[in-house]
Each structure stands twice: as C-alpha cells, then as structure tokens.
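Hi L.,

As promised, Flagellin:
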Amino acid sequence: MRLYHNMMSMNLYKTYKDKLVEQSGALNRISTGSKINSAKDNPNKIGQSELMRMQIRGLQFAQRNLQDGSSMMQTVDGALGGVSDSLTRMKELVIASGNAAYTDEERSALAKEFEALKGTINDAAKNTEFNGVKLLDCKNPGESFDLSAGANVGEKITIPLNNITTDALKDENGNSLTDVDLLDSSKVGQNIKTIDDAIKNINNIRSKYGAIQGRLDSAAENAETTALTMQGADSRVRDADIATEMINFSKANILVEASTAMMAQSNKFPQDVLRILERMK
C-alpha cells in the first residue's frame, strides 16, 4: 500500500503563505498610509507619482520665488513713492527760488534743502536691491533679470532694471536733477521742466513695476493652485484607503488563523492512517 503526499496539508500551507503575504501587505499599507511602498507594488503608478512629485516641488519653489518677487516689488514701490515725495518737495523749492523777494541767504537755504533731497533720492536708488541686484541704480540701460514662474523651462517673468539717480533722471533736453541750480533765478522755468519730467519718469516706472507685481501675484496663485491639484492627484495614486486596508487585514488574519488550525488537523491524517495499519497487522 502506498501513502501519497498530504496534498490537503500542502494546499492549506500555500493558502496560509498567500494570506500571510496579504496580511503583511495590508499592515504595511496601514502603517505607512501608502499603497505604493516600493516599485514592485505598482511600477507604472510609482513612475507617474514620482513625475508628479517633481512637478509639485518645482511649482512650490516657483511659488516661493514669485512671492519673494512680489515682496521685492512692494519694496521698490515704497522707495519710488519716497522719491516721488522728494521730487514734489523739490518742485516747491524751485518755485520758491524764483521769488524775487528772496534774499541770496534765503535762496541758499532752499538750495541746501534741495541738495539734501537729491541725496535722499540717490540713497533710495543705491539701497534698493534684490539678491545683490540693484534695481534702481542700474548702470547699463535695458538690463533685466528673470524670475522662475513655473515648473517648466521657459516659464519666467522678466524684471527690468532702472536708474533713478539724480544724474540719470533727465528731461527731454538732457538736463538732469544735478543740473538744477536754485541760486540762478533765471533758470526757474528750466528747473521746473526738469523736475516735472523726472516725476513723469518715476510715475512710469512705478506703473510698470505695479503691472509686474500683478503678474507675479497671479502667477504665484496659479502655481499654488496647480500644485494643490497635483498633490490631490498624487494622493489618489499613492495614499492607502485605511478603512479598506483594515478590512483586508482582518480578512487575511482570519484566513491565516483558519489555515493554521486546518493544517494542524490535516497533519494528523497520516498519523491516523498509520495507527489503523498498525492494528491491521
């Protein structure tokens, strides 16, 4: 008489191993909160998720960059506002210097205040910078720099550089604020023209920077929205459904325990057969 392999026990052992793997996988997903913990879990999905995460990091970096740029524009606008106030006061001084009733001493006092205001303008120009780049004291007309506005190549916003020093602010005849002379009452008309053109130049620069700040704020908001959308998509790819995984773990745990008990019973079968054969001798 031939005793064959205990196939029932072997099948139960296979079931036991399979359910043990399922139980371990469910527990791992519950503990990590992720249904993709290694490339083998889902090769296609993990590649998709990694690409999305790269895009998300790029968008988050761009958002911070754009917010810094917007803060920079606010700083520039504050500096230009101060320059505009100084120019308004300078115009008042020029008009006052044309008063024939003023003595030379009084006119000299006006000139001293005018010079102090010129120094204020030059200080604003020299001290307004971003990452070491002087925004209002550029020596090369037409220069600019770019801020990254997204996660892809070519997504950028260009920031123009300007020069608002008293040497650079000139009227249409080429006269600068440095050329303004309050001690010569005959130049009042020319001086007013020079300052009026300087005020126009400052207002134009403020207007351009204001439009750029609007673009920076809009781009930062768009980068944030896109990053949040992609984070949601990545979450759907990666994140585990904890409730479902708890059910899967419980089911696998029950089957593991059942398989263990059934294997114990099936392993007794060959022993029972041997005892019967022993009695038949």
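The beta strands are 129-130, 133-134, 144-148, 156-160.

Thanks again for sending the construct details.

K.
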